[in-house]
Automatic annotation (TrEMBL):
Gene that produces this protein: adk_2
Principal localisation: cytoplasm
Pathway stated in the Swiss-Prot or TrEMBL entry: Purine metabolism; AMP biosynthesis via salvage pathway; AMP from ADP: step 1/1
Lineage summary: Bacteria, Bacillati, Actinomycetota, Actinomycetes, Micromonosporales
Physiological role: Catalyzes the reversible transfer of the terminal phosphate group between ATP and AMP. Plays an important role in cellular energy homeostasis and in adenine nucleotide metabolism.
Biological process according to GO: AMP salvage
Assigned protein family: Belongs to the adenylate kinase family.
Listed SUPFAM superfamilies: P-loop containing nucleoside triphosphate hydrolases
PROSITE patterns registered for this protein in UniProt: ADENYLATE_KINASE (PS00113)
One term of GO molecular function: ATP binding
The reaction(s) this protein catalyses: AMP + ATP = 2 ADP
Entry protein name: Adenylate kinase
InterPro entries to which the protein is assigned, alphabetical: Adenylat/UMP-CMP_kin, Adenylat_kinase_CS, P-loop_NTPase
């Protein structure tokens, strides 16, 4: 099974991806986690990506695609994967689809976690305090949500046309969201 998790910053993508991966025995691939590791390591990718992350902007497609190609291919040939944090634009989705299709590891189900903006901001503030992430300042938080609304939200229409798109309310308790996601995935897989 190959899943893509779409949601605004603070929507719970990382939390839900880990839970879904554990339930279905999938590899969880987080572009954000991979980028933060590269930034912390001071690699070429990390130095390039760091400038964009600090401003709340999207890291260039080629940088992210190069970083994700190996993990996605490996997981796609195994039990499958759940990818969170990429693609974030229709252009990225189209480019990723061409690469993944040629490797026979394309996404089968896209899952969108719907969370109201006020709740996203509350969660991002809580995360900033708990994790001390430098990219979670008020200005950057608002900018990241604006970027999501402008660039990432059109992915929903794209995936609704190309694959199965599941929309799940993500503003409920964590276990309730997980249960709903699993129920919806199982329903689609049974068709």
């Amino acid at each position: 099974m190959r899943l893509l998790l779409i949601g605004a910053p603070g929507s719970g993508k990382g939390t839900q991806a880990k839970r879904i991966a554990a339930h279905y025995h999938l590899t969880h691939i987080s572009s954000g986690d991979l980028l933060r590791k590269e930034i912390a390591a001071g690699s070429d990718i990390g130095r390039t990506a760091g400038r964009y992350v600090e401003a709340g902007d999207l890291v260039p497609d080629n940088v992210v695609m190069d970083m994700l190609r190996g993990p996605v291919e490996e997981a796609g040939r195994g039990n499958g994967y759940i990818l969170d944090g990429f693609p974030r634009t229709v252009a990225q989705a189209q480019a990723a689809y061409l690469v993944a299709r040629s490797l026979d590891v394309a996404v089968q189900i896209a899952l969108y976690l719907e969370v109201p903006r006020e709740e996203l901001l509350r969660r991002m503030h809580a995360r900033a305090g708990a994790q001390g992430r430098a990219d979670d300042t008020d200005e950057v938080m608002l900018h990241r949500l604006d970027v999501f609304d402008e660039l990432t939200a059109p992915l929903l229409e794209y995936y609704a046309r190309r694959e199965t798109l599941l929309c799940v309310p993500g503003d409920r308790p964590v276990q309730e969201v997980t249960d709903t996601v699993i129920k919806e995935i199982d329903r689609v897989r049974a068709i």
